[in-house]
Design brief:
Keywords: Bacterial flagellum, Cell membrane, Cell projection, Chemotaxis, Cilium, Flagellar rotation, Flagellum, Membrane. Residues 255-324 form the Flagellar motor switch protein FliN-like C-terminal domain. By secondary structure, the chain is of the alpha+beta class. The protein has two domains: 44-238, Chemotaxis protein chec (3-Layer(aba) Sandwich), CATH 3.40.1550.10; 260-331, SpoA-like (Surface presentation of antigens (SPOA), Roll), CATH 2.30.330.10. It has eleven helices and ten strands. Helix 3 runs antiparallel to helix 7 (162-169).
Length: 332
Amino acid sequence: MAQEVLSQNEIDDLLSALSSGEMDASTLKQEEQEKKVRVYDFKRALRFSKDQIRSLSRIHENFARLLTTYFSAQLRTYVQISVASVDQIPYEEFIRSIPKMTILNIYSMAPLQGRIIFEFNPNIAYAMLDRLLGGKGNSVNKVENLTEIETTLMSQLFEKALENLQEAWSSVIDIDPMFEEFEVNPQFLQLVSPNETVVVVSLNTTIGESSGMINICIPHVVLEPIISKLSVHYWMQTNTKESDPQEYEDLAHTISQAEVDVKAILGESTINVSDLLNLKKDDVIQLDQAIDKPMTLKVDEHSKFYVQPGKQKNKMAVQVLEEIQGGNDNDE
């Protein structure tokens, strides 16, 4: 723990204040003791560190971008989704914070244990449904009177969005999310115990002219097996992990066995077909290659090096002079 070193003048001023009565030593001691006491609510147990919350926020920022693209394509209208907040609260508090009648989708997250909840605000859900059925995206809240067709259409729309959730989580773990249940009354949904800590990711959502929230509730029991992977230290370890020397050697050996076609171009010329057919011995074809200019070495039809001709042990050879930047014919 860092300690502040006082100068001699500051020590003299402090002693002077204590002796004159301007400061009370007992008061200072009491204040120091009070600072050591920190209020902790066991009903709101903070089981995730700030680092882990930031990691969850990054994952769902990516998910929000993917979801924006998906819903824009499906609904053919303006869609904007962004992360508003990521908080850890008791499950009971989450249930109290959402409307009494709303759109709830429950998903499993295999291979992780437990289930998660997607809560779609009725304004958003009905704007999506209206747009899906060819409307302008108007929102009419009639969540208590959903028909079977409307329920099926909503479920299918939200279920297809799970591919985006799978992709967003792929940097941490490969999951296989599955639709489990559709519900409209949160009171009938007892996912975990009331005091269980859950992470609630709130997404600001705009569909056409309608706006609302999408809330994702992830219980602690779901994230517990991978909680160590949600730290920046783990991500940095993963990104900076050195390759296995054996893997490098195997890769180098495989590449060394690859065969490529190498050609040294002496020059090029264009003649018509009749001249080609009438070619005879000792005829000369003038090339476009100047004698004082380097030749081009092509690797699999891509220009890679400038070379000059010569001999190596009585065999024709070329000496590499310079690499052609870019390594294709467009750079010539």
